[in-house]
Amino acid sequence: MNKVRVAVLGYGHLGKWHCQKVEAHSDIAEFVAIVEKFPSGQEAAKTYHPKVKVVNDIKEVINEIDAAFIVTPTSTHFELVSYLLENNKHVFCEKPVCSNDLEAQKLKEIAASKNVVIQVGHSERFHEAWEKLRNTFLNLPTPYTVRINRVAPFKGRATDVDVVQDLAIHDLDLILYLFGQKPQSISSTGYKIRTTKWDHASIKVTLENECEALITVGRNATREVRDLEVISKDGMISVDLFANKIFVATNSQFDDGTFVKEDSYQKRDHLLLEHKHFYNSIREKTPPIVGLRDGLNAVHLVDCTLNSLETNKLVQVKSVE
């Protein structure tokens, strides 16, 4: 089977990592081009990938590729995804796949007539912890409460978007992926601290069957925290995504007389796994592991969250597909 001919659009912080993953799959992917508009990025791309064509515009190589990775600012995603789809190219787009619900509807219409793979980069789905816990989460007795914290000190990156599009989108997607209760409404409060956009947000997602998810995201914290916990009448499950540990406290003792059971799991290269799934979907003509519908659902929840932040009101969530 022929290799998938690939271009990477964007050679910034994350684009560099994507380029490395393309090269790591040289057995099934042919690295054709890097599309980078900034001269400094072009020089760096030429230095580190001397055998790869470096161009200003995707149109220069559109007839030489089968697929593209979009790793550019969020504001460019809709235009680039649309262009690639219109030219019948397979697309991997980093989250969010577009900026808002209006763009989401247009992408849905364009994609409907295309027989290509569209995968969205929701990398947080790839923790091994979720393979261990997802079935348990889907079968929890209701009601239950989910708490997710994703905060870190200011790093000076991704300031072209707010903290909801940058960070909370991961956790809004995880709520859809890990738990079986559909979102009903969202209420949010937040702060603009270092930028003119939201730098901190507290988000309450009301779910079906009296369940709820409480999400805290911030990019001006004093320390980095990434964790998830869920509590129900069966007890509590807590996941430390930095320490790669799972803690379970049930409503009774364990056989060894303890009340908390600890488990660990291996850290993974999420980006490498995403690339592998993307190429396999193209070559085997199978659905992507995280498809356009998943990406558009996450965009809708982001839109609802931002609406709540701006209006300081409860926002109803449309039915997610």
Topology summary:
Layout: E1 4-9, H1 13-24, E2 29-35, H2 39-48, E3 53-55, E4 67-70, H3 77-86, E5 90-94, H4 101-111, E6 118-121, H5 128-138, E7 145-151, H6 163-178, E8 183-191, E9 200-207, E10 212-218, E11 225-232, E12 235-240, E13 245-250, E14 261-264, H7 270-284, H8 292-311, E15 315-316
Parallel strand pairs: 1-2, 1-4, 2-3, 4-5, 5-6, 7-10
Antiparallel strand pairs: 7-11, 8-9, 8-15, 9-10, 11-12, 12-13, 13-14
Helix pairs in contact: 3-4, 4-8, 6-8
Structure explained in plain terms:
Helix 6 packs across helix 8. It is globular, with a radius of gyration of 20 Å. 33% of the residues lie in helices and 27% in strands. It is built from eight helices and 15 strands. The chain starts with a strand and ends in a 5-residue tail after the last strand. The chain folds into two domains: 141 residues, NAD(P)-binding Rossmann-like Domain (Rossmann fold), CATH 3.40.50; 156 residues, Dihydrodipicolinate Reductase, domain 2 (2-Layer Sandwich). The chain has 321 residues and is an alpha/beta fold.
